[in-house]
Amino acid sequence: MRGTEPDREPAQAAGAVVRDAASKRVGRVMGHVGGRVQLRPLNGGREWDAFPEDLSPAAQSDVMSAAVAVANANAVHRWGKW
To answer: In 21, 29, 64, 80, which residue has its Cα 20 to 30 A from 51's Cα atom?
Structure first.
């Protein structure tokens, strides 16, 4: 619906995948509260807050790096450290 939510940058729209320069993390925009943007890791997990000025659209390489980190963490969890 138009007019129900303030205009946002496309990188800050709910569901967008962004890179948080302050925390050097990639996350999905979940919402906005008190002038901050709420982000969640791509693989799920605990949300964190970010300032809108620290966000930029995630590059494909950022998304791939996050996916590889998740796969590696799952492998270590499943098989143990070498």
So the answer is: 64
Q: DSSP H helical segments within 11-82, as ranges? A: 60-79
For the stretch 30-67, pLDDT in tens is 999 999 999 999 888 899 999 999 999 999 998 898 88
Interatomic CA distance for residues 76 and 82, integer angstroms: 8
| Residue 45, CB-side half-sphere exposure with 13 Å CA sphere | 11
Which residues, at least 6 apart from 39, have a Cβ–Cβ distance to it below 8 Å? Answer: 18, 20, 25, 27, 28, 29, 30, 47, 48, 49, 50
